[in-house]
Design a protein that fits this description.
- The chain is mostly helical.
- The protein folds into three domains: 121 residues, no CATH class; 131 residues; 257 residues, no CATH class.
- The protein is built from 27 helices and three strands.
- A three-stranded mixed β-sheet has the order 1-3-2, with helices on one face.
- 49% of the residues are buried.
- It holds the Pfam family DUF885.
- Keywords: Signal.
- This is DUF885 domain-containing protein.
Length: 587
């Protein structure tokens, strides 16, 4: 899991976070100390990743800088985190009297522990990533870059004029990495070259990077910004592309597993912990995944016997995947079908929740520079309810996509999946630290759990999706640990993924490249989903006919993205409160 990128602009905040707690701070109340720590963490988090401020609705001190990537900056931020960690350990969470402060304590404990653990990965030395690399965030910066005032337009020109310096620092980091034995896999590097080339060669008037100029009515700014993209940004990106192609690619590793890098095993252990928020070893995750896959296959066999008269897993999935009425005739048909599924799922999901978010979610194909670069379909959130969120669909693979799989992905990314989850969370009152906090086990765990919810709500139009929904879950727990910790080859991993029937050859190739750059992430989906399902079963068993699915979902979602331990505490507290109400009612 690559460490969050860093940025140069919070000199004042950084100076503050490096101050060690002294007598004056010790005299403050526990609540004041916790709030100060949370504020410092948010300032540091926004320094590490400024674009998250735009997405999450958190204010930035200015809009003129990129993330700092120099070794001195990284060391400075590590020291800031260590300072916060030392002070946090002196603060007793039992002394915090409000739920918000208690949650901030738990979130900051998780955040600092994860960041400290991930240092062993040295991800700044091999930061060539086609899934969430800096080259992809450029389009997000351009989308959100404010240009409404003269001061903001000046800052926009300053930021984008400095892109060449940012690129040169990235190149310097990668060169240091090669000397030290760190690199990204060659297959991933090729994907990034494709993405960067798409940006570097785009005509300015059509480039996603020129979005600030298109949004401004200031003719002078428009001309100046377009000149910056044409004369500074695009040439810098071309230099980065050429560096990757001519210097980096020949020296990059051929192995996919992160274990091929120095301290790779420790890096995988830290990444697994970061993505899942659980203290499970790789073998334990692998075994749980294999057990879950076996149960899913048995379930599919029962369905296959009833529907098609066969229990053979391979035959059944081939039959489903190759069925003519489970295929698409064009890319546009896939896009239109996915949009219709999202609308149908939104209507059906209303019975599952106490309230539905009003924010629009658009279903759109990839932007041109992303096409053919191995990216997966994904959700792009934004806190501002007046702006649309996006389900970006990998529609170029329409020939290999099935209608059943398209339905599953649409509900995972839309309703009752990520858009329901995140658009609803954005409507809830949360502290800035809670807004900033994120882990994949909660986010993707809900996404996977929502695939089951969609079936319960009658969203799937036929049995193809019901069968395919069961064929894939938990395979990520097996394949990811197999690749990174148990010595699986690229070919062995691809064969295991293809066995699910969910992915064709090209999709499976892309998935293993994704796994290479996000070691451990693919285990998060079912680590989280199994925990949410277990909590639901626990609540149903304890509450009986008093169990309300809508209220259960409200408890799960209302505090936003939390570690799984915090989620368990929340749900068990709700169960206890509901049980106490029932007991009092019988007296």
């Amino acid at each position: 899991m690559p460490r969050t990128t860093l940025s140069p602009w919070t000199v004042l905040a950084s100076a503050c976070v490096l101050v060690v707690a002294g007598p004056a701070q010790a005299a403050k109340s526990p609540a004041a100390r916790m709030k100060a720590l949370a504020d410092r963490a948010v300032a540091l988090g926004l320094e590490e990743d400024p674009v998250s401020g735009y997405i999450l609705g958190l204010p930035l001190p200015d809009h003129a800088h990129w993330s700092p990537r120099a070794p001195a900056d990284i060391a400075r931020i590590d020291a800031a985190e260590d300072s916060m960690w030392a002070e946090l350990r002196t603060l007793d969470p039992a002394a915090l009297t409000t739920p918000a402060l208690k949650l901030d304590h738990a979130l900051l404990t998780e955040r600092l522990a994860v960041q400290k653990g991930l240092r062993v990965c040295r991800s700044e030395l091999w930061n060539v990533n086609h899934m969430d690399g800096w080259q992809l965030t450029l389009a997000k910066y351009a989308r959100f870059q404010p240009v409404g005032t003269a001061a903001e337009r000046k800052q926009a020109l300053k930021r984008w004029s400095a892109l060449p310096a940012f690129v040169e620092q990235e190149i310097a980091n990668l060169r240091r990495g090669l000397v030290a034995g760190y690199s990204a896999p060659q297959s991933v590097v090729r994907h990034v070259i494709s993405q960067v080339n798409g940006l570097a060669t785009a005509k300015v008037e059509a480039s996603p990077l020129a979005e600030p100029a298109r949004r401004s009515k200031d003719a002078a700014f428009k001309a100046a910004f377009e000149a910056v993209i044409r004369d500074r940004a695009n040439p810098a990106l071309a230099r980065y592309r050429d560096f990757l192609e001519q210097e980096y690619l020949p020296k990059a590793r051929t192995a996919l597993a992160v274990s091929a890098n120095p301290d790779g095993k420790a890096c995988y252990d830290a990444s697994l912990r970061a993505y899942t928020t659980l203290d499970r070893k790789a073998q334990e995750v692998h075994d749980l995944g294999a057990k879950t896959v076996a149960a899913n296959k048995a379930d599919i066999a029962e369905m296959g016997e009833k529907l098609y008269g066969t229990r053979d897993f391979g035959q059944l999935l081939a039959r489903v995947r190759e069925a003519k009425d489970n295929r698409f005739a064009s890319e546009q048909e896939l896009v239109d079908y996915s949009r219709a599924v999202v609308e149908r799922a939104r209507e059906a999901s209303q019975s599952l929740f106490l309230a539905m978010p009003e924010q629009e979610m658009k279903v759109e194909p990839f932007e041109d520079f992303m096409r053919g670069s191995g990216m997966s379909s994904h959700y792009e959130e934004v806190a501002n309810p007046k702006l649309p969120a996006y389900y970006r669909i990998n529609s170029e693979e329409w020939k290999n996509e099935s209608r059943g799989a398209a339905e599953i992905t649409a509900v995972h990314e839309g309703y009752p999946g990520h858009h329901m989850q995140l658009a609803f969370a954005f409507t809830q009152t949360k502290t800035p630290l809670a807004q900033l906090s994120f882990n994949s086990a909660f986010a993707e765990g809900w996404g996977r759990y929502s695939e089951r919810l969609a079936e319960d709500a009658g969203v799937y139009s036929n049995d193809y999706a019901k069968i395919q929904r069961r064929a894939w879950p938990a395979r990520g727990m097996v394949a990811d640990t197999g690749l990174h910790a148990l010595g699986w080859s690229r070919e062995q991993t691809i064969d295991y993924l293809k066995e699910s029937g969910r992915f064709g050859p090209a999709e499976s190739e892309a998935l293993v490249d994704r796994m290479a750059m996000w070691p451990g992430q693919l285990t998060a989906y079912d680590s989280g989903a199994l925990e949410i399902a277990a909590l639901r079963e626990q609540a149903e068993a304890k509450l009986g006919n008093r169990f309300d699915l809508r209220r259960f979902h409200d408890v799960v979602l209302r505090r936003g993205n939390v570690p799984l331990k915090v989620l368990r505490d929340d749900v068990e507290a709700w169960i206890a409160a509901e049980t106490a109400k029932a007991t009092q009612g019988t007296r």
